[in-house]
Amino acid sequence: MTVAKKGGSGKARSAITGKYVSKQYAASHPKTTVVEGKKK
Predict the structure, then answer these.
(1) pTM for this entry
(2) Which tens digit of pLDDT belongs to each residue from 16-35?
(3) Domain boundary assignment for the chain
């Protein structure tokens, strides 16, 4: 599982609910959020 990073690209999503969350929330809760990367 990828952990949320500050300034990462892509959208942040909750690992528990699957819903999109803000990047500020993802930075505050790195154990329960993932940041989706862009396709190359």
Answers:
(1) 0.61
(2) 999 999 989 999 999 999 98
(3) 1-40
